[in-house]
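Appendix B. Raw example, untouched.
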Amino acid sequence: MKAAVINAFDGKFEVEDIEIDSPMGHEVLVEIRASGLCHSDLHLAEHDFGILGVNLPAVLGHEIAGIVKDIGPDVREFVVGDHVVASLIQSCGYCDACRAGRTYLCRNPHETLRKADDLPRLTRGGQPVTAVFGTSGFAEYSLVHENQLARVPKELPFPQACLLGCGTVTGAGAAINTAGIRPGETVAVIGVGGVGLNVISGARLAGAGRIIAIDTQPKKEDLARRFGATDFINAGESDAVEAVAGLTGGGVDHAFEVIGLKTTSEQAIKMACSGGSAYMIGLHLPDASIDVNVMTDLIVNQVTLRGVNMGSSNIKHDIPMYAELYLQGRLNLDDLISREINISEINDAYSELKHGVIARSVVTSF
């Protein structure tokens, strides 16, 4: 099958022919009909995030939607022909966190993967190829543990469906699940990319009274407003912290950083009002750190600082919910898709994404 493989941490994907095994245990063989280009995969292709266990060669891609083609003997939830969305949230299903519905905090995520003495899921010339996060979505097919899949309605288009697996659960989930935004509260979102737009969507669904989108590219204002932003700040022309304070009279209840930079992370903390919260969503480099004035920011202003992983989502509940909201016309997924591409165009599409030209490209053909 065709797959986009990374052979070095240089940000380049090479389209090659590799082999995929038959499903075993709780694995599901999914024919991929759409695979979104998330910025996180580009970070992983450019940098050696050793703590995440990305061994080369590897196949990335974690925003996938497709059709179940085969199932392992222990699969209970899916049948051939189901339409499914995958997520990189790996959960065992039985630890304390999973039983409480906090699958994003699973204590045993490795149990969704094959054991060391099993045959690898992916091979090239007989040698193992890493299926990153157990999804390996930049390929024609994927073997995914059933705990990483959610069934979606068949009327949901595949390009829109694939975005639910990461961009939507991370962004909208951060607003709804992690932050628990209440009607009337104020929100600032730093970074109007795919995830940032979903934070805006989630804030609107939660009833936020004011949603301030912040980006250095003024052309993103119209896009942000289509998702529910009430205000837009061009951070390239003004001090974003001062602008947020001016719009709100002192800061927002919830400030989301969706880029992964030291400067913008520190700005998010400064944008929160007294008693407000700042949420770190953007993927930082492995050795990144930020400066926090414990006395002023955390004690005097009583700002809560929280890291967000996958929007604190339970995919079995959240993905079908977002799918239904889209079909009802209440969740905007259409404007997230900048264009559909062939897998051979992946490097050009990532170049565009890296420079902030587009929101999301989606691979829909191989």
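End of appendix B.
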